[in-house]
Amino acid sequence: xxxxxxxxxxxxxxxxxxxxxxxxxxxxxxxxxxxxxxxxxxxxxxxxxxxxxxxxxxxxxxxxxxxxxxxxxxxxxxxxxxxxxxxxxxxxxxxxxxxxxxxxxxxxxxxxxxxxxxxxxxxxxxxxxxxxxxxxxxxxxxxxxxxxxxxxxxxxxxxxxxxxxxxxxxxxxxxxxxxxxxxxxxxxxxxxxxxxxxxxxxxxxxxxxxxxxxxxxxxxxxxxxxxxxxxxxxxxxxxxxxxxxxxxxxxxxxxxxxxxxxxxxxxxxxxxxxxxxxxxxxxxxxxxxxxxxxxxxxxxxxxxxxxxxxxxxxxxxxxxxxxxxxxxxxxxxxxxxxxxxxxxxxxxxxxx
Length: 352
Ligand SMILES: [Zn+2]
What we know:
Elements: E1 2-9, E2 16-24, E3 34-38, H1 46-64, E4 71-74, H2 79-82, E5 85-86, E6 89-90, E7 94-95, E8 100-101, H3 126-138, E9 143-150, E10 152-153, E11 156-160, H4 168-173, E12 178-182, H5 189-198, E13 212-220, H6 226-242, E14 260-262, E15 266-270, E16 275-279, E17 286-287, E18 292-297, E19 306-310, E20 315-320, E21 325-326, E22 331-337
Parallel strand pairs: 3-4, 3-9, 9-13, 11-12, 12-14
Antiparallel strand pairs: 1-2, 2-4, 5-6, 7-8, 10-20, 11-13, 15-22, 16-18, 16-21, 17-20, 18-19, 20-22
Keywords: Hydrolase, Metal-binding, Zinc
Cofactor: Zn(2+)
Protein name: Succinylglutamate desuccinylase/aspartoacylase family protein
């Protein structure tokens, strides 16, 4: 194993950030290579814990000589966001200087143009240098996993159609409860990687066998526990074994039996008016159209001071807002349905 660091000099004097990078060299040049990063949104820590346990397994495998493909793990990918403290809370999602989401504005380049990402890096801001260095590193691999989490959530992933159903082995290995099939049309890290894989130099490819770029949502922000993270690390290990990146003949991959739904099937349940939220249903529950999901206390103390919010379609509650006050139009839940419920969705991810 080789441990290096991505070192990002600050945009002001006297500042420098460091992100450790762990590299394992595989014994078989024909085996797929893998890149795994966690906490690009610095306040999403389930992936950091999973990467920590996975690295423990990989160090042991390295000592036993069972690593076949090259593996790179960056367990805490965003030291800039990690250091942003604002009114007592970590602001890990947006760069405070530019108000830009740390998981947007990744450059969209073809795989053949990979090295242009790191040309003239010194002229770019610290956040741009971090993004370009991460993307450049990832594009040196066949399989790329970006570990995120949602607010309150079951475990699911955003997977571009181009990698489905080949990626069902990852969903099965991690025991995901849902897969959201996306169109790959945004500037998120996962989609910049997918863009490069689909534009390897010539025309856009519809499918890219042997490649993968995925955003894994490791449940909710507070779902950071030793047992849970160790199980997910075992799941990632099983995925790596199934793809031949590590050798573990004892493992066999089961078929994925959970739902795989297009983003057009995701009902975003919104708060029609502001109010204090009383949820009646939790993530992981299935609901029928008309079921009451939440009561909003819009006028506390008044006899008619509440309204109810009902499901408009049958489906599975995938995520829930952790806040208990809703501003008008806030998202309360994401419900994965059986049919397309949205005709107004803009291309790109819902959020991640
Ligand atoms: Zn995220």
